[in-house]
Amino acid sequence: MQQGQIVKSLSGFYYVLSEGTVYPCKGRGNFRKRKITPLVGDDVSFEIDENDEGYILEVHERENELVRPPIANVDQAVIVSSGVEPTFNPLLLDRFLVLVESKHIKPIIVITKSDLMDNETLDRVNTYKQTYERIGYSVILGSSHNENGMDELLPYLEGKTSVIAGQSGVGKSSMLNALEPAFQLEIGTISKSLGRGKHTTRHVELHKLNGGLIADTPGFSSLEFQELEQEELSECFPEIFEIGKSCKFRGCMHKKEPKCAVKQAAEERELPAFRYEHYLQFLEEIQNRKPRY
């Protein structure tokens, strides 16, 4: 029995990478009965029979999983924001950060199009960059010439399984193409053969890049907090979670409770005002969420 990782799922076959070789495999017949659907990123045990046909025998426990894109065991998410066209949006960035943190995936922030910003915009973006770095996030500032800034990202990818996330138009596909020219060929071929635009939904595939694996599909098509409970939200804001340890009451929601260390930190400007505002906005959204049956 061999161990490997699924790097592609297509037409009923799972392509398993093991010691540098990719083996096409079928899933075991009883997976369906047991309601197991192997995902790209899964660590699996498999065997090859005398006819060189592979069979996945076991899917190992997952660290995490995403629904869109359907992928498991992601180490980090590269969250791409642009400084201009579209304008830098800290509310949207925080939304992505919360979704990533809630899955225990490490975020890396990339802000693109620095060369298209005027001095005022660049100052504003740099102020946000410094705030996020103080919180503990890695932030890379790149230009619209795709290669610039990407060299800085490459070391982060080593030995990790990464996905890319961000709103439309911020340059996710351009970034993938700058990182690995082979992606460009693949996207172009698919567009031509389907007669549609670049963003046609297709299978997810993990590609080797700089000693790690990166998914070739920009992820997170849904940005709603459907799976997040209100008690878990503060854990997705690392600086709020840390300050919240000093709150007078356990289970403090940092909203109206007395002797709340987070509210005090916000009032005394020790906590970035925009982060606390976004926390309260997301908390309200979760509290007003319609129950799902």
Automatic annotation (TrEMBL):
UniProt cross-references to HAMAP family, sorted A to Z: GTPase_RsgA
Pfam families: RsgA_GTPase, RsgA_N
Stored CDD domains: S1_YloQ_GTPase, YjeQ_EngC
Domain CP-type G: 63-223
Official protein name in the record: Small ribosomal subunit biogenesis GTPase RsgA
Taxonomic superkingdom: Bacteria
Gene responsible for this protein: rsgA
Stated role: One of several proteins that assist in the late maturation steps of the functional core of the 30S ribosomal subunit. Helps release RbfA from mature subunits. May play a role in the assembly of ribosomal proteins into the subunit. Circularly permuted GTPase that catalyzes slow GTP hydrolysis, GTPase activity is stimulated by the 30S ribosomal subunit.
Gene3D superfamilies from the UniProt entry: Nucleic acid-binding proteins, P-loop containing nucleotide triphosphate hydrolases, Probable gtpase engc, domain 3
Main location: cytoplasm
Segments forming domain EngC GTPase: 72-221
Subcellular location: Cytoplasm
